[in-house]
Amino acid sequence: MLHKQQKAFSNITAKSIIVRNGFFEKAEIDNSKNILEIDGNAKISQIDLSKDMIIIEFEKFADGRGFSLAKLLRQNGFKGIIRAKGNLLVDQYPLAIRCGFDEIEISLAHAQRQPQNQWQEVLTRTNNNYLDRLMLA
Amino acid sequence: MARKFIEKIVTANALLQGDVIYFTKQNVWSRNHQDAIIAHTIEQANELLEKAEQQQDIIVGAYLADVFLDEAKTASPLHFREIFRSKGPSNYFHGKQTKT
Amino acid sequence: MYQYNQFDKHFVANRAKQFRSQVMRRLDGSLSEEEFRPLRLMNGLYLQLHAYMLRVAIPYGSLNSKQMHQLAYIAKKYDKDYAHFTTRQNIQYNWPKLKDVPDILDDLAQVDMHAIQTSGNCIRNVTSDHFAGASIDEIADPRPSAELLRQYSTDHPQFQFLPRKFKIAISGSPNDRAVIKSHDIGLLMKKDERGNLGYEIYIGGGLGRSPFVGKLLKDFLPKADLLPYIEAIMVVYNLNGRRDNKYKARIKILVHESGIEKIKQEVEEHFIEQKQNFKQPSDKLISAINERFKLPNFKQANIDNYEIELKQNAQFSSFVKNNISEHKNKDYSIISVSLKNIGETPGDATSDQMQILANLAKQYSHDELRISHEQNIILPHVHKSDLPEVFKELQKANLATNNIGLISDIIACPGMDYCALATARSIPVAKQIAKHFNELNLEEEIGQLKLKISGCINACGHHHVGHIGILGLEKQGKESYQITLGGEENLSMNIGKRAGPGFSSDELLPAIKRLIEAYLNLRQNPEESFLASYKRLGEKPFINALYPKEEKANVA
Ligand code: HEM
Ligand code: SF4
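A: This is the predicted complex of the input protein with protoporphyrin IX containing FE.
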C-alpha cells in the first residue's frame, strides 16, 4: 500500500495536486478552457454560468461557504466543472462531491500528509446518506 | 518599571487518555504538578512551550500556566482553574486527588 | 418511539467506523490537532479540564429502556459510573479516553444511538418538548418533525462547516417547554384557520454572551414545506453569517445586524428557489416516520388504589402535586423524576439510577423515557393505578425528590468542576442553595421559581432565562457571581436583567436568602409567584434586598 502511494507521488512535481475520482493528478491549467475563479464572497446571481469551469477557493477548510456555492451553481443549472481550491480535509471530500464539486486542488504538502489512499477510502461515504434517501425514497 | 515576571510551567492534556499533564526537565510529561519544569523568564517560557508543542503526537493543547513558588521553591498553581486541573472536580472525589 | 431501520443502523455504525479511522489518522500524524478537532467535535468529543468529554445525543429527548440501559452500561464500563444530563437533551460522559471512544460509539450504535453533530459548527441535536406525545395540551407531537429534521441535517453536505453551531428546537404545544425562542430556529406547531398543521417560525434567538429573544420569521409555514424552508434559512446563514469573529458568528448576530425584514426577504427568495429544486420526501417515508411515534396501547384499569393512596399518603400526594403532569389520557400521568436530589449534582445520574429508571420505564411507562431541558428524566406514560408502586420504587432508589419547578430544581452547567471554558464553578453553588432552602423546609412555601446557573458567559445553564439567574465569573483571581432577575423562558421569553455587582462565593447564598425573604414579604398572596411579584413590583425592591447597604447610602 505504502509503496503504491510513494509511486503516485514520484510522478508529481507540481506544487499542487488535483484530487479527481479519488486519484491524485498533476495540477495543470488547460488554457483552452474558459475558467472563472471565485471565493466564498461571490454572489451567486452574478456568476456567469456559461464558463467551462468554476474554481471556488476555500480560504480555510472550515469556511463552509464553498459548499453552498457549489450546490447553488448546480441548482442553477451550471454544467461545467467545479473545482475546490484549498486544503480541504479528506473527510470533507465526500461532502464536496455531494455538493456538486468534481475535483479538489490541494497543496503538495497537504497531499503528503493526507495521501491518496485516504481520499479513495472516503469516496464510499458519498453513498448511503440521509439526504439522498429523504429526497429519493 | 517592568512588571515582575510570574513563573510559568507548560501544561497540556495527554492525547490518548485526556489526563492533565505537565512538561518536565527531561522533555517528557508528568501527571504531577511538582515535576513541572519552571520557566523564570519569558524567554524560557516561550522556549519551553515551543519544545513541548513539538510533541503533538502525544499531547493536546499545550499552554503556559502561572505558578507561585514557596520557600522550598516548589511550584503551585496560581489560578484556581489550574488548582482544579491539578486536583480534579470538587463535586466528586475523582481525578488526580484520588492518587495523592 | 422511533425505531431505527436498516438504513439508520448502517449509517450510525459507519460513522463509528469513520471516527475510528479519524483517530488513527490523528495518531499517525495524517491529521493535525487543528484538523482533527472539528472532526472529533462533530462526533461529540470535547476536551475539558481533566479529561475528554463525550456528548451523546438523545434526539428530541426520547429514549427507550434498552437505550437507557446501554447509557448506564457505558458509564460503568468506560467512565466513573455516572453521567450528566444536559439542558440540550444530551448526556455527557466526563472521563472517556480517546482510545475508548470508537468502542463507545460502537456500543451506542448497537442501540441506535450516537454522538453525531452534538458539537461543532453544524446543525445540532434537535431538541423538543419533553412531554411530547404525552401532554394534554399538545396540538401535535413535535417528534416526527424533529426526526425529519434529524435525518435532513445529519451529515448534510452543505452545513457541516457553518459559521457557528446551529440549534433548532420544536414545540408541539402552545405551552412551550422547549424554550424555542432561545434557539437559532424555534418552531411552534400550530393549525391554520382550516385546521391544517404547520409551524410558526422564530429565528435568531440565543443565549451566550449576547442573548437575544428569537424573532418571528414566519407566521405559518405549511407542514409540507418544512425542509425547503429550513434549507433556505441555512443557505442564507451559511453564505452570510459572519466568519471574521467567533463571537459574532451565530445567526442571531446576522439577524440583529441585517434586520429581520432583510433576512425574511432573503429567506423567502431562497425558499422559492428551494421549493422548485427540493425533492420532498415521499409520503411513504413521512408516514413511516409518523408510524414510529404512534401512541402506545394505553391500558384500562381501575384507579381507586391511586385515589386512596393520595388521601392516605402525604408524601405520595406531595410528590403527585409537584412531579406529575396531566396526560392526554385521563387515567395516565406524566412523571417527572427529579435529578436534583438535595445536595447532589444537578442533572447527574448514576449507572444504577439509570438502570432503575430503565426498568421502571419498561414495566410502567410503555418502555418510554424522556430527558427534559431542565435536566430531569420523564416517565411519560404511567397509568395512575401504577403510580403508588412507581413512587415506592423511586423512593427506594433515592429518585423521589419532589421538587419539580421549585427553587431546588436548579439548572446548572458543569462549570469549572469540568468545563474548560468556565470562569467559576456552578455545581457547588447549586448544591448550597438547594440545601439551604430544603433544610428550612421553604421550597413549597416559595413555590414556582426557576433558578439557573452558568459557569461562564456562554450561558449553557440558561441563567439569562432564569427567574433568578446566576452567572459565575472571575474577579481578581476569585470566583464571583452575578445575579440576574426576571428572566423567563416560555413564549414570553425575556432576558433577565443584571441586578448589580457580583457576589463572592461567601456572599452569594446570603444574597439569595435576602432576595427570597424580600419576595416572601412582598408577595400579595402565597399564589403570587416570584416572577409575578417581580413583574408587578419591578426590580427596585428586589435590588434593594440584594444590596441593602447601597440603599442606605442612597438615603443618606
Ligand atoms: C462542557 C463543555 C461545554 C462547552 C465547551 C460548551 C460551550 C458552549 C459555548 C461556547 C456556548 C456559547 C455559544 C455562543 O454563544 O455562540 C454554549 C452555549 C450553550 N450551551 Fe454549552 N458548552 C458545554 C457544555 C454544555 C452543557 C453541559 C450544556 C447543557 C447543560 C450546554 C448547553 C448550552 C446551551 C443551552 C447554550 C446556550 C444556547 C446557545 O446560545 O447556544 N452546554 N456552550
Ligand atoms: S456556561 Fe460556560 S462553564 Fe458552563 S458549561 Fe457552558 S461553557 Fe462551560
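The mean pLDDT of chain B is 93. Chains B and A do not touch (no CB pair under 8 Å).
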